[in-house]
């Protein structure tokens, strides 16, 4: 256990990200990048070399170091704890390995509804995922109040897809087969995941997370009808349950929902108890604002591949994006994670462009 009482956390010095989550004014638009701790950083590759991915996830000191690495290079306005969404299937009893060159792999994925009996019916998150909580508490101290720390989880449908596919997939046909052939078992699994996720997010807040992001990375392979039935109700349930619990203890922790390629559900997502809706790059900023009707803050959405452009072009793209979203109730980010072959210098140019242009726009 970390000996320090979470109440002793250092005072927050830069609250731009939290203010933007709540739609409040900020001097500059806050910015962070999904996968900001990652292989595009030479120090990350060096630190991870020869270590098993999930062993690294289970080491609070390693997670803390990897979370802080990008903050030493760039003036990001938020940190995100280094971990992975697949720690939840592991906590439910599934074996998940990170295979070099292939990505996460489940040697024994779920095949038929009977396989649900193999999952832990009731997960003790403190016992199974306490290592993430320790990493959060340690990182919150080591951040020294520089910026807020974001905790995260995979959403139920995205996790279900991995548990059935056994890894990444382009069609998700095995997991979608369940939705059409075994709808009841699908709901049973989604409900089991929702219960663990709620406890997991509450544990992250108790450990020191100051905001929470829910990744529905595989929203895009669902259509609007399947999204309404198999994703949205669970996303809503998670936010409502986490917020109800936090309210009881007088805590206010903003929540972000990122449903990649799911902008057919944008109106619904903006009325789902999340303060912030994350966007991928396939939607125009002005249209996203219109469709969400000013009800939520927005996060995103520069095409990650724009970071391959020369710095001057990155600056122009950022300026346009800021003009489209406006500087209030907005958190700049990419529309998905950074890729390993990206140039850290261009990431720096992105961050600088967001800060500089948004300060100028605020003075107008
Ligand atoms: O060895 C390595 O470093 C492998 C690359 C890597 C990294 C850096 C993986 C494997 N996971 C992570 C860390 C990670 N994963 C973070 C860290 C914090 C940060 O953003 O800096 C986060 C938030 C995640 C979340 C995650 N894992 C998501 C949701 C975000 C997204 O990309 O949509 C998903 C889908 C995963 C699964 C996963 N983990 C790793 C890979 C390569 C994948 C995708 C596999 C696939 O579907 O093909």
From TrEMBL:
Keywords: Decarboxylase, Heme biosynthesis, Lyase, Porphyrin biosynthesis. Catalyzes the sequential decarboxylation of the four acetate side chains of uroporphyrinogen to form coproporphyrinogen and participates in the fifth step in the heme biosynthetic pathway. Isomer I or isomer III of uroporphyrinogen may serve as substrate, but only coproporphyrinogen III can ultimately be converted to heme. In vitro also decarboxylates pentacarboxylate porphyrinogen I. PROSITE patterns: UROD_1 (PS00906), UROD_2 (PS00907). It catalyses: uroporphyrinogen III + 4 H(+) = coproporphyrinogen III + 4 CO2; uroporphyrinogen I + 4 H(+) = coproporphyrinogen I + 4 CO2. Residues 30-39, 150-166 form the Uroporphyrinogen decarboxylase (URO-D) domain. It comes from Oncorhynchus kisutch (Coho salmon). Pathway: Porphyrin-containing compound metabolism; protoporphyrin-IX biosynthesis; coproporphyrinogen-III from 5-aminolevulinate: step 4/4. This is Uroporphyrinogen decarboxylase. GO terms for cellular component: cytosol. GO terms for biological process: protoporphyrinogen IX biosynthetic process. It holds the Pfam family URO-D. HAMAP family: URO_D. Its EC number is 4.1.1.37. Belongs to the uroporphyrinogen decarboxylase family. GO terms for molecular function: uroporphyrinogen decarboxylase activity.
């Amino acid at each position: 256990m970390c000996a320090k009482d979470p109440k002793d956390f250092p005072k927050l010095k830069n609250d731009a990200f939290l203010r933007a989550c709540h739609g409040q004014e900020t001097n500059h638009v806050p910015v962070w990048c999904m996968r900001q701790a990652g292989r595009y950083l030479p120090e990350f590759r060096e630190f991870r070399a020869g270590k098993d991915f999930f062993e690294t996830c289970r080491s609070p000191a390693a997670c803390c170091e990897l979370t802080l690495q990008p903050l030493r290079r760039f003036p990001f306005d938020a940190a995100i704890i280094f971990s992975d969404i697949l720690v939840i299937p592991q906590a439910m009893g599934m074996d998940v390995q990170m295979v070099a060159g292939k990505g996460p792999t489940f040697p024994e994925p779920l095949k038929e509804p009977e396989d649900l009996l193999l999952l832990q019916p009731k997960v003790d998150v403190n016992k199974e995922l306490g290592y993430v909580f320790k990493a959060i508490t340690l990182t919150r101290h080591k951040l020294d109040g520089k910026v807020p720390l974001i905790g995260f989880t995979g959403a139920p449908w995205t996790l279900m897809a991995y548990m059935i596919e056994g890894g990444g997939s382009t069609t998700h046909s095995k997991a979608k087969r369940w939705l059409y052939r075994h709808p009841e078992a699908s709901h049973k699994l989604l409900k089991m995941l929702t219960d663990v996720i709620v406890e997991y997010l509450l544990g992250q807040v108790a450990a020191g997370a100051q905001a929470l992001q829910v990744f529905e990375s595989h929203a895009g392979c669902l259509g609007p009808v399947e999204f309404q039935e198999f994703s949205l109700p669970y996303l809503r349930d998670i936010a409502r349950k986490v917020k109800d619990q936090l309210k009881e203890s007088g805590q206010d922790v903003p929540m972000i929902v990122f449903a990649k390629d799911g902008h057919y559900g944008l109106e619904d997502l903006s009325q789902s108890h999340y303060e912030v809706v994350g966007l991928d790059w396939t939607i125009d900023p002005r249209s996203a604002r219109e469709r969400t009707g000013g009800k939520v803050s927005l996060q995103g959405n520069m095409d990650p591949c724009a970071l391959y452009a020369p710095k001057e072009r990155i600056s122009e793209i950022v300026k346009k994006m800021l003009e489209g979203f406006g500087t209030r109730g907005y958190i700049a980010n990419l529309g998905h994670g950074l890729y390993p072959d990206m140039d850290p210098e261009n990431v720096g140019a992105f961050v600088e462009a967001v800060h500089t242009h948004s300060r100028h726009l605020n003075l107008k």
